[in-house]
Amino acid sequence: MNTTVLSVQGLKVHYPVRKGFLNFNKRKYLKAVDGVTIELAKGETLGLVGESGCGKSSLGRAIIRLNNPTAGHVQINGVDFLALKGEALRRARTDIQMIFQDPYGSLDPRMTVQEILSEPLQAHLKLSRKEMDLRIRQALAHVSLRDRALKKYPHEFSGGQRQRIAIARALVLEPKILIADEPVSSLDVSVQAEILNLLKEIKDRLGLSMIFIAHNLSVVKYISDRIAVMYLGKIVEIGDRQSLYQAPQHPYTQALVSAVPIPDPRLERTRKRIAVTGELPSPMNPPKGCAFSSRCPLAVDKCQTEAPSLDALSEGRWVACFEVEKGRTSN
Question: Does the pLDDT value for residue 271 go beyond 90?
Fold first, then answer.
């Protein structure tokens, strides 16, 4: 049985938004994440996919406590991560680290690579200078950079090399869990494959668990063991990468998969493309029922008033859709 290293239960991130100067005390809330439940097993990569604005990055930041969750629970190796404070929180942060999307914005341009990699060690651990230098050189070796890079500044590197430095910064604390927030989306296509292969190699070599956030389903399929599909702050489907890609169940997942190009021109011309119509609803005013009901071709009256729960369709497969559940029970 796989050991669960990360458990997220009912996590919500609601940002308060003032309605205007004359209504200073009246607030609405932007529901970026609205009751997400996921689990991550030891050595597993869970892909988190969805269109821009669906709450993927907010979820990742809330898990690591860069943003404070509004409600819910996060457990790391059985410990309530959200309840930790002070020294206990500082120690626990070494177990979970984040790789950010933009390597140009996530590295301080005034610091050398040596200083960038030393900073988390100084903040979280009490190491001698010799132990610190060893950790830094090991982290650089993991991302295939030489020691001579330590004296240079971020502007002296290409985008792909900067992302390698950002990965090394996340690895220097020897975490057990990585959250990669669209780590290749800002890179050239030719460099994306290098970084993806590097992350797979590092994860396998060090036995890490990883949440990989992206909006590109092809990229997520390549690197992930399981995939969770997110829409308007909610998880609508979870499954292993092969079954989810070959037989998507939720209408939104079906639309995402149908938009992925196929390298065979004949199959590409003949396959059915599923288009999602309408605008993405505002997370400040989401639909009362199913989050996808305003754009779903299968929506019925019940979908407008009730929100479906994420239920098990089969072993390892979870779907939040009344019509999919009805089709299963009628067979």
Answer: no
